[in-house]
Amino acid sequence: MNPSDPAFYHPAPRTQQYCSQCGHALTRDIPPDDNRIRDLCTHCGAVHYQNPRNVVGVVPILGDQVLLCRRAIEPRHGKWTLPAGFMELGETTEQGAARENQEESGARIRIESLYTVIDVPSVNQVHLFYLAQALDAHLAPGPETLEAAFFDLDRIPWHDLAFRTVSTTLEHYLKDREQGRFPTRHYAIDLRFPD
User: Fold this and answer.
1) At a CB cut-off of 8 Å and minimum separation 6, what does 109 contact?
2) How far apart are CA 134 and CA 142, in angstroms?
């Protein structure tokens, strides 16, 4: 399916039932001067906008190895992933990526550049991964990680990776490494359809 085709984007609706300002039940309608269905409060007039969630993470490299973390939480418990998670309020995407790395792997890193931006409209998310250099091999995984390990690039556990955004990012890292240049890349993935 072509990401530029408008039919590609069918986001899963996220709706809330009650107004966070006054507690009354919400309705779904198009507000005046808008063009989309929103969660509306007919009691206080509040419009509750639902926006995509940002997932931020890093691709930590140490020589010819990449750092992966084995998930201790759902979804995809026990599968390998890059250190990443949901961005928090009050932080930049880079700060969030560094925080997630610290929480999940405990690796000391230096973030270099934004590497991949991956739109995942079917789950209302945008995934942003930064290239990073691991400063040493020390790891101290947090409670969301069963184990963290550096993998030789020819030993990445492709069949045990947790998410398509992770495998897409790693596939392009390997190709870019061969060419010796790492441009920022932008993709769209629809999780409703297998590759």
Assistant:
1) 58, 60, 98, 101, 132, 133, 134, 135
2) 17
Give the position of tokens 């709706």. 15
Task: With beta carbons less than 8 A apart as the criterion, state whether 124 and 14 touch.
Answer: yes
Domain definitions of the chain by residue range = 1-51, 53-188
The length of the chain in residues reads: 195
pLDDT digits (tens, 9 = 90+) for 29-69: 999 888 988 899 999 999 988 888 999 999 999 999 999 99
- Alpha-carbon distances, residue 68 vs 30, 49, 139, 151, 167 (angstroms): 44, 35, 11, 7, 11
- Extract the tokens encoding 82: 């890059």
CATH 3.90.79.10 fits 53-188, yes or no: yes
Mean pLDDT of the chain: 91
Helix (H, G, I), strand (E, B) or coil at 20: coil
Q: Which string of DSSP letters, residue by residue, matches 92-131? A: -HHHHHHHHHHHHT---EEEEEEEEEEEEGGGTEEEEEEE
pTM for the structure as a whole:
0.84
**Do the domains spanning 1-51 and 53-188 agree at the CATH topology level?**
no
Percent of the chain whose predicted confidence (pLDDT) is above 90: 80
Residue 5 scores a pLDDT above 50: no
